[in-house]
Every structure is written in structure tokens, then in C-alpha cells.
């Protein structure tokens, strides 16, 4: 084995995960030309093309797709070696990389991380905001260790642990006097939509197509929290997961259960070979407990 190729393989892995030489360079604090040189070094050493051009970015070639899993496992094992050596040195430390949408991060991750930090658990957290579909894809690729996602997202080969079942709600600005139902107001007020590719956007588009509703105007927002903020400011009607509304002041909002939309389980996802040490096991146990509390909060919201 030529160990000098390991840094180049790390560059290959980041390009594969990001689909962009420039993005990989940004994350690794290198120049794009340096990244490209490392990729060429690996390709020339083995005589195989790992990437193909894809518009302004790159994508894995068939050979690259075949090699990605092995490269990912290589660096997963390397991370385990570093953790083991830290433990042997008497300074155990775990870095846990997480992906979750903003409202799941606030509703589930914040309480658990706060508990572990208050108890001085030797763990560092790296959190990336992502919708459910991206979170599943990043876990599959090994870009993060754990992901929180709605059950309808991708990730068929991942280990999944259910956390709670979540209904969806219609939410809009509160009107004075006797106001029509929010579903009726959809035809006459601006519609707030999440980004294409998210589970919430998929559910909303399916409902609009089924009911043949064409909104007078639409506003695309990047996150559930931003959607709720716009509604609180008096602008637009949207479809939101219940957990996002459990701690929001209701005085400015009209909220209705979206009975037309099937409730979705929220799951914790990880790769099958993910190394679960005692600290990570403790994190997962507390996250499961927080999921049960989240389900209680959403039920209370529906009864209100």
C-alpha cells in the first residue's frame, strides 16, 4: 500500500460528496488546482477515471461509484483508530457529525446536546443543516455519522431507528372575525413553500395537484423555521411539521391539522458499519427519550 496516497484519497472523497472541486477545496482550505492535482494523482496511479464532467461540476464515473463505499469505509476506520488512540492516552474524545433540518435540530438535538455538555461528556458535535432527503444521502455517503429525517426520504440501506410520529399542520396569519378555513384561503393568499426536493414540498405539491389548486402567488423559503417566521409576520400560508410549532406563540397564527397529509415517522439514520462507542450509545438513548417527549408535545398541540 502506498500510504502517501491517503491524503489524495481524502480529496477524492470530498469531491465525490460535494460534486464539486471548488466546494471540496473550500472545505479543505485548499485551492481547486491542488484538489484537481490530487484527484489526477489517484487516477493516474491506478489507471482509472473516477469522475466525469457534469455541467459546472463533476459526478462519479461507474468506477468511482464502485470505489466510493470502500473509500468511505477506509476513513470511517481511520476515525475509529484516532478515537481508540485518544482513549488509550487517557483523553477519550468523540466527534459526532450530525445532519438535521433546522426545526429538528432545535426540537430534538439542542436538549440532548445541552445535557451531554453540561455533564462534560468528551464529545464534539459538528451539525449540518439539511432537509430529510439530503440528510439521508449524506449519511449514505459517510459525510455525516447520524441523520434525522422523515421516513419517506431516501436511504434504503441505512439502519433506521424511529423517534416519533409527526403530523403536519396548515398554518397561516390569524385574521380578525370569522375567517374561512386555511385550505380555502390557499386559493386567495400567498403560498409559502419549502425548497424543491424536501419532504414537506413533496407533500404540499401532491396536495395541490390532487385538489387542483393554483395559488395566486408563491414564496419559496429555505427552511421550516423561516416559513413559520413569515407566517408570524402576517405573510402567507404554509404546510409545516407539528414539532416546528410546539414552541411558537399562537396569538398571531391560525393552525389546522392537515388531515389530508399522512403523518410521517421521524427517524434516526446511520450506516450499518457505524462504530457506536459508549458515548454515542448514550447520545442515541437520550435522543430516543427526547423523541418520546416531542411526540407528547405535538399531541398536546393538536388538542389545543
UniProtKB/TrEMBL annotation:
<keyword id="KW-0804">Transcription</keyword>
<keyword id="KW-0805">Transcription regulation</keyword>
<keyword id="KW-0238">DNA-binding</keyword>
<protein>
    <recommendedName>
        <fullName>HTH lysR-type domain-containing protein</fullName>
    </recommendedName>
</protein>
<feature type="domain" description="HTH lysR-type">
    <location>
        <begin position="1"/>
        <end position="61"/>
    </location>
</feature>
<dbReference type="GO" id="GO:0000976">
    <property type="term" value="F:transcription cis-regulatory region binding"/>
</dbReference>
<dbReference type="GO" id="GO:0003700">
    <property type="term" value="F:DNA-binding transcription factor activity"/>
</dbReference>
<dbReference type="InterPro" id="IPR005119">
    <property type="entry name" value="LysR_subst-bd"/>
</dbReference>
<dbReference type="Pfam" id="PF00126">
    <property type="entry name" value="HTH_1"/>
</dbReference>
<dbReference type="InterPro" id="IPR000847">
    <property type="entry name" value="LysR_HTH_N"/>
</dbReference>
<comment type="similarity">
    <text>Belongs to the LysR transcriptional regulatory family.</text>
</comment>
<dbReference type="InterPro" id="IPR036390">
    <property type="entry name" value="WH_DNA-bd_sf"/>
</dbReference>
<dbReference type="InterPro" id="IPR036388">
    <property type="entry name" value="WH-like_DNA-bd_sf"/>
</dbReference>
<dbReference type="Pfam" id="PF03466">
    <property type="entry name" value="LysR_substrate"/>
</dbReference>
Amino acid at each position: 500500500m502506498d500510504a502517501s496516497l491517503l491524503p489524495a484519497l481524502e480529496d477524492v472523497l470530498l469531491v465525490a460528496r460535494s460534486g464539486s472541486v471548488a466546494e471540496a477545496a473550500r472545505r479543505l482550505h485548499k485551492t481547486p488546482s491542488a484538489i484537481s492535482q490530487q484527484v489526477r494523482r489517484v487516477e493516474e496511479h491506478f489507471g482509472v477515471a473516477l469522475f466525469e464532467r457534469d455541467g459546472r461540476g463533476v459526478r462519479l464515473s461507474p468506477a468511482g461509484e464502485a470505489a466510493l463505499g470502500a473509500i468511505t469505509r477506509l476513513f470511517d476506520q481511520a476515525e475509529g483508530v484516532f478515537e481508540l488512540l485518544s482513549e488509550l492516552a487517557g483523553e477519550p474524545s468523540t466527534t459526532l457529525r450530525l445532519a438535521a433540518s433546522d426545526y429538528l435540530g432545535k426540537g430534538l438535538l439542542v436538549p440532548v446536546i445541552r445535557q451531554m455538555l453540561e455533564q462534560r461528556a468528551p464529545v464534539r458535535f459538528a451539525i449540518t443543516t439539511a432537509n430529510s432527503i439530503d440528510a439521508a444521502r449524506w449519511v449514505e455517503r459517510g459525510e455525516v455519522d447520524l441523520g434525522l429525517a422523515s421516513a419517506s426520504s431516501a436511504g434504503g440501506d441505512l439502519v433506521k431507528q424511529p423517534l416519533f410520529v409527526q403530523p403536519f399542520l396548515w398554518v397561516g396569519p390569524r385574521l380578525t372575525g370569522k375567517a374561512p378555513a386555511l385550505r380555502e384561503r390557499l386559493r386567495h393568499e400567498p403560498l409559502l413553500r419549502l425548497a424543491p426536493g424536501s419532504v414537506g414540498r413533496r407533500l404540499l405539491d401532491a396536495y395541490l395537484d390532487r385538489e387542483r389548486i393554483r395559488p395566486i402567488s408563491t414564496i419559496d423559503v429555505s427552511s421550516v423555521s423561516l416559513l413559520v417566521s413569515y407566517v408570524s409576520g402576517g405573510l402567507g400560508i404554509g404546510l409545516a411539521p407539528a414539532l416546528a410549532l410546539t414552541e411558537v406563540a399562537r396569538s398571531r397564527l391560525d393552525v389546522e391539522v392537515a388531515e389530508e397529509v399522512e403523518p410521517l415517522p421521524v427517524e434516526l439514520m446511520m450506516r450499518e458499519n457505524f462504530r457506536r462507542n459508549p458515548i454515542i450509545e448514550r447520545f442515541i438513548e437520550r435522543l430516543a427519550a427526547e423523541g418520546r417527549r416531542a411526540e407528547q408535545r405535538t399531541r398536546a398541540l393538536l388538542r389545543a
